[in-house]
């Protein structure tokens, strides 16, 4: 992407921007757990549950769950503010005003997109009853793109490239690589949210079923089962009290319908799309090699 050596000032700016993205990601997870009412995150109590447990342990007045939710929302907001401050500090240290403005624009776009994606996720968990099967699949794909794929893979690549002074052609290549890889990343996450080993993922097996996530996996399953199976599926999905037998029933419907195999096929196609974007890319050979390794790292995983 560049031939001149990276200065310490530029390296510090990149580290600061990367730290900003980490805090942004943490803020999104804290808020996401509140919205989904998730009890765990990576094997530990989620932020709102930790605050609620503190309330219960100290025997404070009022409702522990309500306190936990309020405190976690504030924590997420605080992390968002710190993320912005870190990015501003990093961009001011970069020493390249034009690159800094480009990176800031990309960051702002990412923040808008992931917020819209989170809303789309909430919307589809409620509005799915008025959608036909094709609309459900299209809606689920939009959630994948805007809630996860862009901000988890595509946007960080573009922000880093902008900091390094990438050309428009290089930015387009990274977008063509990052978006399909981000889609594959989230689809793998959706499979793990239903079938993952709790000891590895840090979340109870089938947790996404209890939360009623309207994923592409769910949309494909519903479009391939009989009307009677679909009715039972819809009755169970989203019930936080699902027992092991009911979770196994939903998992079986997903496997038997062929939806799991189709999602695996989509993951493979998106990974091929991502790698194809690198075939004639005007990027440094070592950058291309690192990006190709990234495709396996984010899609061939168990957590």
TrEMBL record:
Alphabetical list of Gene3D superfamilies matching this protein: Farnesyl Diphosphate Synthase
Alphabetical UniProt keywords: Magnesium, Metal-binding, Transferase
InterPro entries, per database record: Isoprenoid_synthase_dom_sf (IPR008949), Polyprenyl_synt (IPR000092), Polyprenyl_synt_CS (IPR033749)
Cofactors demanded by this protein: Mg(2+)
Keyword Signal: no
Keyword Metal-binding recorded: yes
Family: Belongs to the FPP/GGPP synthase family.
Record's protein name: Polyprenyl synthetase family protein
């Amino acid at each position: 992407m560049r031939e001149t050596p990276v200065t310490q000032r530029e390296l510090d700016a990149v580290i600061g921007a990367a730290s900003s993205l980490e805090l942004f990601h943490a803020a999104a997870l804290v808020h996401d757990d509140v919205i989904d009412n998730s009890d765990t995150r990576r094997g530990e109590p989620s932020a709102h549950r930790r605050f609620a447990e503190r309330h219960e342990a100290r025997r404070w007045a009022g409702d522990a769950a309500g306190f936990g939710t309020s405190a976690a929302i504030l924590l997420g907001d605080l992390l968002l503010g710190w993320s912005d401050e870190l990015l501003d500090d990093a961009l001011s240290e970069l020493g390249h005003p034009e690159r800094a403005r480009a990176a800031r624009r990309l960051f702002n776009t990412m923040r808008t997109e992931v917020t819209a994606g989170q809303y789309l996720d909430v919307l589809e968990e409620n509005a799915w009853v008025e959608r036909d099967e094709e609309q459900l699949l299209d809606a689920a794909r939009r959630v994948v793109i805007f809630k996860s794929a862009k901000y988890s893979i595509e946007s960080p690549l573009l922000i880093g490239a902008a900091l390094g002074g990438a050309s428009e052609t290089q930015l387009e290549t990274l977008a063509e690589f990052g978006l399909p890889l981000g889609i594959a990343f989230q689809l793998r996450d959706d499979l793990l949210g239903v079938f993952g080993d709790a000891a590895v993922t840090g979340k109870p097996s089938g947790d996404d079923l209890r939360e009623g996530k309207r994923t592409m996996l769910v949309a494909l399953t519903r479009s391939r089962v009989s009307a009677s199976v679909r009715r039972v599926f819809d009755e169970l999905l989203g019930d936080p009290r699902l027992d092991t037998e009911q979770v196994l029933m939903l998992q079986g419907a997903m496997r038997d319908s062929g939806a799991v195999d189709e999602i695996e096929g989509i993951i493979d196609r998106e990974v091929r799309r991502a790698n194809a974007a690198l075939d004639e890319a005007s990027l440094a050979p070592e950058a291309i090699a690192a990006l190709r390794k990234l495709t396996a790292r984010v899609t061939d995983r168990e957590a």
